[in-house]
């Protein structure tokens, strides 16, 4: 059994977790910065970096104590090294380097997107490579063919906004605060998904890419015209977003080599309507559908520890202490 300490600090969640190679999360802790950022309607990088710096060490201490472990029990220290807000990423990475150095353990520098991409395998021991992955978060919107650890074929990406960003902007327009995804989902339950005519950008286009900027502008116009209830706008937006996702993912699957499953990960994968829609789409292709449990969808450290475990298992070498944090780092 291998044990890895994971650290996540790339956006607005400070998180630490201890995960074993037999898929047990021994302890995990997340400090959300929602309160600090919500007055600004989005994440303020400087505030985020300071909050990570204040909270990370006590969080790590807490998970170690909770699990009754010390650094000496860990086989590696894994931390997000990018992509993300550079100040926050540096806080997590430099902490991991210090811990790795002090305990003489290997440092595993993890691409945050790889954390999301492999997270479904932490929850589902039956999930085998290769699988088709819709990775939908606040910063990313991609379809990948996950072929193995460190082996990702990117099939599609967004040409403008990420899907989570569209949810967050819709929430801002409707005055629902930040983060917007869960609030839009909740309000949408009370609305009519057909009430507001909204565009479905790029639907039926040949390449499976995404675009959400036009949808966001249409939401703003629908709100400003004053003819629709907020609930109808939320429901119609969510439906339009789902239609785009289903069409684009269908297109991607049609052109993709065989896969074992359709998988959804990233913060937006927490959305029940989107999960249900994707489950139906997977059935069209005779594929099982899986998505991690909700706490593993949004940013967390268990997925970073798990990516570290997967990399160790696959024989990847430890990363050097000179390694730099990367604000941009495509998979
Ligand atoms: O993966 P994540 O925690 O952070 C990034 O790596 O970006 O994703 C956060 C994004 C936010 O845009 C948030 O609004 C969205 O995921 N999100 C949701 C839901 N929960 C979180 N979007 C739609 N429905 C949800 N239930
Ligand atoms: Zn994320």
Automatic annotation (TrEMBL):
It catalyses: L-threonylcarbamoyladenylate + adenosine(37) in tRNA = N(6)-L-threonylcarbamoyladenosine(37) in tRNA + AMP + H(+). Residues 25-306 form the Gcp-like domain. It comes from the Bacteria. Substrate binds at residues 135-139, 168, 181, 185, 271. It is found in: Cytoplasm. GO terms for cellular component: cytoplasm. Keywords: Acyltransferase, Cytoplasm, Iron, Metal-binding, Transferase, tRNA processing. Binds 1 Fe(2+) ion per subunit. Its main location: cytoplasm. It is an enzyme of class 2 (transferase). Its cofactor is Fe(2+). InterPro entries: ATPase_NBD (IPR043129), Gcp-like_dom (IPR000905), KAE1/TsaD (IPR017861), TsaD (IPR022450). Its EC number is 2.3.1.234. GO terms for molecular function: iron ion binding; tRNA N(6)-L-threonylcarbamoyladenine synthase activity. One of its GO terms (biological process) is tRNA threonylcarbamoyladenosine modification. The keyword Electron transport does not apply. Fe cation binds at residues 112, 116, 299. Belongs to the KAE1 / TsaD family. Required for the formation of a threonylcarbamoyl group on adenosine at position 37 (t(6)A37) in tRNAs that read codons beginning with adenine. Is involved in the transfer of the threonylcarbamoyl moiety of threonylcarbamoyl-AMP (TC-AMP) to the N6 group of A37, together with TsaE and TsaB. TsaD likely plays a direct catalytic role in this reaction. This is tRNA N6-adenosine threonylcarbamoyltransferase.
